[in-house]
Amino acid sequence: MSSRKNHLSTDGILLMLCNSVVKVLTSAMDTEVAFSPMIQKINRTCLKPDIACFVLFEGGFSGLVVSNFSAAAALEIYQTYLLRMGIPEAELATQHTSDEVGNVMGELMNQIIGDFTSRVGEELLTSISQNQPKMLVINKEVMVSINTNLDRPQTRRVTFKTARNNIFYLEFAVDRTEFVQLQDFTRQDEINPDKIIAETESSRESTPQRAVLNQDLEQLNSELLEKLGF
How many helices (H) and strands (E) does the chain have? Predict the structure, then answer.
């Protein structure tokens, strides 16, 4: 390793969060979700119409995540996700004010933050925890802030775009922080529950096959011993 150690600042942590948004929503909808390579430095975080959510986190560092969706963006994500799950279109809500839309969007946001906290643990070897996100339908801007003193807070806004070109925004407020790698370490492997389940099922399916194979080998051995006169 070179003498120059790796550094990760606030914007590097924000990039981890953006990647979590893309990973979760792309997997949920099976369509492309992208974010702008240009981020905005802003002075405050706000909940904005039509549907918004905020999540507080604390631990190795403290901060706030705010997501703001237009009605069109929220409905696209909600409907595409449930259609992919096999829900008939006729059973889907058509208004962003529906409780079902808020519940589904809240669950997706919870998955996003969960993926983000996992990344923090794997890549930064520190831990953060968050509160349960809740989607709010609002018709005017509401300013939100963290009920704690941040050391030189930094605030950012990132623009995201869905496959149908609907826009939504992510706002991120966090302590001004920097992680500096002092020595080499082995990055923790990401735990993939789906992979573990698949491997377990594969192992179960192969068990009868191994039993048949063992039985055939025993029969061959018995026949060989008979031919040899034993």
Answer: 4, 12
* Residue 48, CA distances (Å) to 18, 158, 169, 204 in order: 19, 14, 10, 50
Residue spans of the domains in the chain: they are: 7-180, 192-230
CATH code, residues 7-180: 3.40.1550.10
Q: Which residue has the tokens 């190795």?
A: 60
The whole-angstrom separation of Cα 118 and Cα 105 is 20
Quote the CA–CA distance of 56 and 132 in Å, as a whole number.
Answer: 9
Residues 97, 74 contacting (CB under 8 angstroms): no
Residue 110 DSSP label: H
Model pTM score: 0.78
Structure tokens at 213: 């194979």
Q: How far apart are CA 161 and CA 14, in angstroms?
A: 17
Taking residue 51's Cβ as centre, other Cβ atoms within 10 Å add up to 26
- Condensed to tens digits (0 to 9), the pLDDT of residues 131-173 reads 888 899 999 999 887 655 666 789 999 999 999 999 999 999 9
